[in-house]
Specification:
single chain; about 250 residues; alpha/beta; TIM Barrel; about 40% helix; globular; binds 5-bromo-uridine-5'-monophosphate
Amino acid sequence: MVQPFSDRLKYVTHPKAQELIKVILRKSTNLCLSADVTSSQQLLDLVEKVGPHICLLKTHIDIVSDFTPDLIEKLKKLSKEYDFLIFEDRKFADLGSTVQKQFSEGVYRISSWSDFINAHVVVGPGIIKGLKSVAQDQGLILIAQMSAAGNLCNETYTQEAVKMAENDRTFVCGFICTKSVSDDQSFLNFVPGVNISSTGDGLGQQWVSPSEAIEKGADVIIVGRGIYQSSEPAETAKEYKEQAFKAYLDLTKE
Ligand code: 5BU
């Protein structure tokens, strides 16, 4: 049974997840923009347009060809102006000792600016320990399922991811999944693979509609090309926002 966001605040314990729910309630949006564009200016222009409609901005910071730390400052400023959080979709997938450096060092210094990060669980719990040891106040999202066709996250793998999350509630705050993977209301479900006008990209991605994603258990829908390839990204984001939030309200009303 899906609970309204206002009730979820009673169960969700991670401060960043609580913060995200408060943004969702303030702005009436559970839309995350996946801003997969490759120049700083494109990214800033897109966020300037879509910022009012999202609760969360998802970045792949390593695809920005002209990255400088100044981009982060500008994104942080926009996140305050438009009231959204930032999720760096780095998909950490290495030994605890390696991810410590990938998370906190290098060009991107992800631990200094992200609100959420994610990790694959194929490595085992050491990855959680490693990331946690250098985290500032981030929430970790575990990849329990993937949206790509033929992916190897079977039911056993997914349930192992859930167990790992249950073992570290002070750091893990939710899952990347295609449907609800746990009845535990303290974890948030982030669902990628959402598109209104297409069902696939010919490269393995599988898309469902915003309402289908919500009905399957999404708390937050993640949308990339559906928005940033639109000729009117702001209008299109508004459409995704309204469809997803209405579906959530319909599902949770008494
Ligand atoms: P799209 O353009 O809406 O297909 O973008 C989806 C984004 O979500 C993209 O950045 C992917 O890297 C990301 N993603 C995904 O699509 N499916 C997954 O299982 C995971 C991440 Br994990």
